[in-house]
Amino acid sequence: MQTMTIKNKKDNETYTKDFNSVDEAKNWVINHLDLSKDWKINQTKKMTKKQKEKQEAIEYLKEHIKKGDTLYTKIVKVSPSGMSRQITVLDIKDQTPSYWSYYVSKVLDYKLKDNGALFVKGCGMDMGFHVVYSLSKVLFNDGYAIKQRWI
């Protein structure tokens, strides 16, 4: 099975389906779609496990974190050299905290420590802001769509 994307340029109508071959995809187009449109069939590249986990984490975070929400960051530990730190990311809704560090680690490719905190390298700037800005940029293509505050 191969995943293929079937798209037309006229109105950007798109279908993603699994087929055994390009010929099977062509037959599906003939039997199910409007042939007056110019349909293009492209084989979709297979995602690695890491890419799939990242995509799933992005989708999950988009369901739960909206533009204008505030994410709170908390420093759990700073290395003796000061060149890295462990940061947790959470939000508080209805007086209940929700921890997002696991999903943020998948999206931004940070290592997750045993204590559930992100391992963030760097110094000389607000690293909590950096984490939330980077996440907001990935989720909403706007680094300022999510607000950040320290706990």
Question: Which descriptors would you attach to this protein?
Answer:
151 residues, alpha+beta, 6-stranded mixed sheet, 9 strands, 4 helices, 2 domains
Brief sketch in words of this structure:
The protein has four helices and nine strands, in the order E-E-H-E-H-E-E-E-H-E-E-H-E.
Note down, in words, how this protein is organized.
By secondary structure, the protein is of the alpha+beta class. It folds into 2 domains: 2-43; 49-150, no CATH class. It is built from 4 helices and 9 strands. Strands 4, 5, 6, 7, 8 and 9 form a 6-stranded mixed beta sheet that branches. The protein has a 3-stranded antiparallel beta sheet with strand order 2-1-3, with helices on one face. The longest helix is centred in the middle third of the chain and has 16 residues, at 49-64. The termini are far apart.
Major sheet: size, sense and barrel closure? 6 strands, mixed
- Oligomer status: single chain
The chain-level structural class is alpha+beta
In DSSP terms (H or I, runs of 4 or more residues), the helix count works out at 4
> What general form does the structure show?
elongated
Number of domains: 2
Low-confidence stretches: none
Q: What is the H/E string?
A: EEHEHEEEHEEHE
Distance between the termini: 49 Å
Beta percentage is: 25-35%
Number of strands: 9
Radius of gyration: 21 Å
- Overall pLDDT confidence: 92
Helix share, percent:
25-40%
